[in-house]
Amino acid sequence: MLITLNCPKCHKNLQGENNSKLFFCMTCNLVFDVGDSKPKRYDLFYILPKIKREYSQIYFPFWQICCRYQIQVSGKPEENSQTRFFYIPAFFIKNINYFGDIGYYIMANNIVLKTGGREDFPVFPGDRGLADSIVYPRIYLYKETAQKRSTESIDINIDHQEISVALIPFYQVDNDFYDSVIYWKFPSGALI
């Protein structure tokens, strides 16, 4: 049975696939996360490519989570609270250890992603809802802090302030996808 999902704002069809948790309204720049019992709506942003290539493009969805956090090492606050954007892939990678986590790399290297205007390219299916992704800012911060202070106990107080979805352009070359921010290669077989 085919079910058509429509945007409640403009009533146009939402873009997504059968097993997607995210559905996109390209007219209203909105994303609907239907992975929870109550579907939620988020703003949709387009990220400008840092590296431009003359290959076919496709946008990959990333959760863009702005967090205020404070890190405590061995029970003592390490620094005043900070605010930072985290980018978590809203798509699954079969073996993240082998192919790397681009969201962590962007965070660890303080890469600033700039929003831009929409271009008419397809969007890769979003099959990782917010419920599957909200833990990643904490994981990224633990990973980053543990690399500096591996033997001490780490506690992180975190407050999720703003949540949206950012579409990052990727280039498709044969059977590989290259992101346009750091130009990492993902074989198409690595993506679910």
Tell me what the structure shows:
The chain has helices spanning 96-99, 102-108, 130-133, 136-148; strands spanning 22-25, 30-33, 40-47, 56-73, 76-77, 82-89, 115-116, 154-173, 176-179, 185-187. The radius of gyration is 18 Å and the shape is globular. The two termini are 23 Å apart. Strands 1, 2, 3, 4, 5, 6, 7, 8, 9 and 10 form a 10-stranded mixed beta sheet that branches. The chain is mostly beta strands and 192 residues long.
Give the topology, please.
Blueprint: E1 22-25, E2 30-33, E3 40-47, E4 56-73, E5 76-77, E6 82-89, H1 96-99, H2 102-108, E7 115-116, H3 130-133, H4 136-148, E8 154-173, E9 176-179, E10 185-187
State the main characteristics.
192 residues, mainly beta, 10-stranded mixed beta sheet, 10 strands
Q: Termini distance?
A: 23 Å
Major pleated sheet: 10 strands, mixed
* Helix/strand structural class: mainly beta
The protein's oligomeric status is: single chain
> Helicity level, as a percent range?
10-25%
Number of H/I helices: 4
Mean pLDDT: 84
Contiguous runs where pLDDT drops below 50 for at least 5 residues: none
Beta-strand content: 35-45%
Approximate shape: globular
- Number of E-type strands: 10
Helix-strand topology string:
EEEEEEHHEHHEEE
Q: How large, in whole angstroms, is the Cα Rg?
A: 18 Å
